[in-house]
Amino acid sequence: QRIFELAPDTFQHHQLEGTQREQLRIHVSSITKTNGLVVKWMDYPENPSIIDPMEQQSDYYDRSKAVFFVCIVYFWDHQLDRVSCVSHTCVTPDMRKRNEQVTLFIQTIFDIYNNKSKAEGYGRIKFLSLWSDNCGDQFKNKYHFGWGSGFLDNEGLLAIFFNYFAPGHGKGLCDSEGGVSKHAVALAALHGSKLISPYDLFKYLKENCLDVSSKTTSALHSPDLGDFHYFKDGEFLNFHPIDLKIDCIDCYHRSEE
């Protein structure tokens, strides 16, 4: 078993951000029709508030909220014969942004692409490259690496690459996608749509927001489609991470010469 953590050396923040984004671009550019590589860029954008257009001002602080988790997936689309990009937004009323959420989100979305690849006759995914910030409760901890070790074995992966952006890395496409979704549900609520629960937000987004609006100047970072997934409150309790023992992690530190 080999689990890789890609961690950069210390730079000025603006230099570091450029270096890390370039490494993400290199990983995406490395996807081919035969190497079985899938790249995921993921983050928690700011939580959306559920707005009642008839609410009193005193209700503002009592609004219920939902959690959005955005996962941008890059993969080889055999029908289009090119690299495609799809934005996945996971919606849940569970406000605890912890590792058991992250691992269930990753595994659920991985299954979509792994099953698609096998059904089309191209076999299972071979390499998984994960990009995220370095939050200790969510992405960078012993539970996450323990999950990765078991996941690598269970899914027959050849390697998992864990890549971490440094603190203060700035906003990215995940924040953009989250912002577009939050704006869409807020605007719908203010125009009379009854969106009073996280599930209502999910249903509205699933029915009305599959066309991606947050296009960027780089084609590599522009999703072709959007999709939405709902996870019930308490669903993560059955997915609590196990503290597996890790014998060795190979850490590769990259820097610009």
Strand order of the largest sheet: 7-4-3-2-5-6-1-8
Tally of contiguous helical segments: 5
Question: How do the helices and strands follow one another from N- to C-terminus?
Answer: EHEEEHEHEHHEE
What is the number of beta strands?
Answer: 8
Indicate the low-confidence ranges by residue numbers. Answer: 1-14, 56-62
Task: Briefly summarize what is shown.
The chain is α/β, with parallel strands linked by helices.
Can you describe what's shown?
The chain has 257 residues and is α/β, with parallel strands linked by helices. The chain has an 8-stranded mixed β-sheet with strand order 7-4-3-2-5-6-1-8, sandwiched between helices. Strand 3 and strand 4 form a beta hairpin. The longest helix has 21 residues.
Q: What is the element layout, followed by pairings?
A:
Blueprint: E1 3-8, H1 13-29, E2 37-43, E3 67-77, E4 82-92, H2 99-119, E5 127-133, H3 142-155, E6 159-165, H4 173-190, H5 198-208, E7 225-230, E8 250-254
Parallel strand pairs: 1-6, 1-8, 2-5, 4-7, 5-6
Antiparallel strand pairs: 2-3, 3-4
Observed structural traits:
disordered N terminus, single chain, alpha/beta, 5 helices, eight-stranded mixed beta sheet
